[in-house]
Amino acid sequence: MRTKLRIILYSSFTICFIQTGNAQTNMDLPENKYPRKPRTTYHMLRQYNHGYSSSLFFGYHQTFFLNDFFAQQIKKENISISPGIYGTYRLEVLFPFIAEVSWYSSRFKVSDENYTFPDDTQIRHRGGELAAMLALLPSSRFLVPYFGLGYQYGTIVVGRMWYQDPYQHEDTNETYYTLADSKTSTPIWKCGFVVSFDKRWRLNAEYKQSVKTNMTKSFNQISFGFGFRIL
After folding, report:
1. pLDDT by residue (tens digit) across 84-94?
2. What would the pLDDT profile of 118-148 be if each residue is shown by its tens digit?
3. Cα 81 from Cα 124, distance rounded (Å)
């Protein structure tokens, strides 16, 4: 009796093994038919960018100093804000981690006749920046918010235009020369978002804040720009 049971069990296992082998040989299993979907949004975006992406951005940039004197001069219209510019190279290799290198220049014009400097004096806040950011959730192909930290190498420059002929301001031979300058280099934190219209064209908006303890030189910055993917 026991011998018969053993023969039946061995026969059953052999048949199941052969049937399973035939099934794997002659047809795809479900996991081969239907590829696994990306498990996370970050994984999906990394695949969408083929693992890496780099972009150039250009646009409007402006600095606002947080000390009371600056606020009073703006309010009295002794200092007026002129459009500034910025340029950024942004690299995404291990998304959601993002690195970038930037250059910026914000401009102000002195318009008070009784001010310390002449009426054609201009004030510029310019410099460079290195930063690292982290893309935040929820992110998508079309909208990626982010937060980051960085360091700005900045300088406030006070200067005016110098003309070859002081009585003829239309002279094309003009040079900008410095009357005074002061360093504003500081760590910063920043946040913003990138809107992608397609795989090439992008829009970027950003807010930055210095963490400098010297309130005279503390500032925040805003920027809006368009960009395009180069890799």
Report:
1. 999 999 998 88
2. 666 788 999 999 999 999 987 788 899 999 9
3. 10
What does the alpha-carbon distance between residue 229 and residue 46 come to, in Å, rounded to a whole number? 15
Q: Could you tell me where the beta strands, DSSP code E, fall in 43-142?
A: 53-65, 79-92, 97-110, 121-135
Distances (CA, A) of 174 to 81, 109, 116, 119, 166: 22, 17, 22, 16, 10
Per the confidence metrics, is the pTM higher than 0.90?
no
Residues 160 and 121: their CA atoms lie apart, in Å, by 4
Q: Give the other-Cβ count within 10 Å of 67's Cβ.
A: 13
Q: Which residues contact 12 (CB under 8 A, 6 or more apart)?
A: none
Please give the single-letter amino acid code of residue 62.
Answer: Q
Cα dist from 203 to 26, 51, 226, whole Å: 51, 21, 5
* Cα 76 from Cα 70, distance rounded (Å): 10
CB 216 within 8 A of CB 67: yes
Q: 112-120 long-range contacts, Cβ below 8 Å, gap at least 24?
A: 112/73, 112/76, 112/78, 112/79, 115/78, 117/158, 117/160, 117/179, 118/160, 120/160, 120/161
Please give the structure tokens belonging to residue 207.
Answer: 């807010």
